[in-house]
Write a structure and sequence with these properties.
- This protein has 11 helices and 13 strands.
- Helices cover 34% and strands 23% of the residues.
- A hairpin with a 2-residue loop joins strand 2 and strand 3 (35-36).
- The protein has one domain: Spore Coat Polysaccharide Biosynthesis Protein SpsA, Chain A (Alpha-Beta Complex), CATH 3.90.550.
- The protein is globular.
- It is of the alpha/beta class.
- The longest helix has 19 residues, at 277-295.
- Helix 8 packs across helix 9 (231-238).
- The structure holds uridine 5'-triphosphate (UTP).
- Residues 10-17, 56, 105, 108-111, 113-114, 131-133, 257 line the site of uridine 5'-triphosphate.
Amino acid sequence: MSPIRKAIFPVAGLGTRFLPATKAMPKEMLTIVDKPVIQYVVDEAREAGIEHFVFVTGRNKSVIEDHFDIQVELELTLKERGKTQEMEILQADLPPPGATSFTRQQAPLGLGHAVWCARNIVGQEPFALLLPDMVMQGEPGCLSQMLAAYGKHGGNVIAVEETEPENVHKYGIVGVGEEDETGFHIDQMVEKPRPEDAPSNMIISGRYILQPEIFDLLENQATGAGGEIQITDAMISLAKQQRFSGVRFDGRTFDCGSKVGFLAANVAFALSRNDIADEFHAALTDIMSKDAKARQPAEKGGGPAA
Ligand code: UTP
């Protein structure tokens, strides 16, 4: 069984749900506490043993490339000012020299097309695919948890999580087959089904281990939902020939492509940080209690209007 050495990070989307913040800045560079979203996802891949990081970028995304490079002037200034802790953080965040590749998706034709753009860098070996929109909080990280299923069954592995049945029409949904201690055999995959047609309420949640045959399927993949080339459509074809396993991630997932998910991620990660958790908890409690009071219906002779 081939080890998983390379990971693809598709970062060429337009991020329209975050305009105007994303007019000139990639959404992958929005910060959760004090780190860009993309750094959390790269850290998860490094923890899982990934050696080569392949970014599929687009116009206005060059700042992502700069983020994963040394900033000589900044480091010199930090050194002069004796800011060793800040220097150490910057150095720890940096992938090893030569471990990153950047390729361009010239037009945002869909996630499947973005993955296909990385085919020559990945070559004929299985790889991980991490959507930077989905930020996972858990130990070990989501990709590490998926490697247990890969180690046992090989093939393709997808992280899944439950959603409310009324939301299944927004996602790729999998059917739950035979289970073991690492997860389950995916016996069906459907893109954005009607609730009555969904095989389960398990959604595909942004982490994949895929075999290289997916590239040939993507090459000829017709456009699907939203007029885009969808990775799920190619996976449905691949599942006719190869095993797909589902792994229920033991942790929390934040959809940072949506405003509420991004804000929730900031709260959850801030509360998990030793340096700011107590102070932030107090500030948050204060905001929440004032908000709760403001929402109470106006009482006779006092209180703010509802
Ligand atoms: P999304 O559809 O959530 O990203 O794709 P988006 O299109 O940037 O978001 P909105 O809806 O306009 O706000 C999930 C991931 O796939 C990448 C995105 O960058 C994101 O990380 N992607 C999507 C590409 O790289 N290329 C594409 O053509 C589409």
